[in-house]
Structure formats: C-alpha cells, structure tokens
Design brief:
This protein has 107 residues and is mainly alpha-helical. It contains 4 helices and 2 strands. Strands 1-2 form a two-stranded parallel sheet. The longest helix has 20 residues. It is globular, with a radius of gyration of 18 Å. The N and C termini lie far apart (52 Å). The C terminus is likely disordered.
Length: 107
C-alpha cells in the first residue's frame, strides 16, 4: 500500500516513479540521473539505516503499539523523506539566499 501511495504521489507531482530509460535495474551503481530510479543504488544503505532509526524512535514513542504498526510508521516516514529530497536543491538555494539578508538585518 505504501509503495502504491508513493508512486501515486510521485505521479501527481509530475515525477516518474521509476526510471524513464526503459529498464528497471536491480542495482544501479552509476552516480548519475538514474539514482533513486531503480530498485537499489548507492543510497540504499542510508534508507536502511534511517528505517532502523525511525523504527527505534517508534519503539521509544509507541511501546504499547504492535511492532507491525511501528514498522509501517518507519517505512512511511522514510517514503515521505524521499518527497522532501525532490526539491532539496531549491530549498537549500532558498535558505542560503535568505541567510545573508537575515545577517544584514541583524547588524
């Protein structure tokens, strides 16, 4: 369900949920535009680590809930994290363009 929702949101945002190159690779080792568009790439270990961290936070915050609910929450948070990375360059550009103005106002 989470995978289908993620693909649906990507399509709604005008993004492709999988690579438009015409192939689906199990491992995409090149550091190019195909990253995050195949089954696994160099970023996969960070997603696994984030999943463990989010599950651990869920365990701390939701000890009375079943483990399956904590797993679903961890996967959903990591899926949402992918949406925030879509415009990360634009966000960082906006942040860094505003910071000098804030510093100038403080002086």
């Amino acid at each position: 369900v989470i995978l289908a929702l993620t693909a649906g949101v990507l399509l709604w945002m005008g993004r492709n949920p999988i690579c438009t190159c015409g192939t689906i690779e199990l491992w995409h080792g090149a550091l190019d535009a195909g990253n995050s568009q195949h089954i696994a790439d160099w970023y996969m270990p960070s997603h696994i680590i984030h999943g463990f961290l989010f599950y651990g936070l869920g365990w701390l915050a939701m000890r009375s809930r079943p483990p399956g609910e904590r797993l679903i929450l961890a996967v959903a948070i990591e899926a949402l994290d992918g949406f925030s990375k879509i415009d990360s360059d634009a966000a960082f550009g906006t942040i860094f363009s505003v910071l000098p103005a804030l510093r100038a106002d403080e002086m």
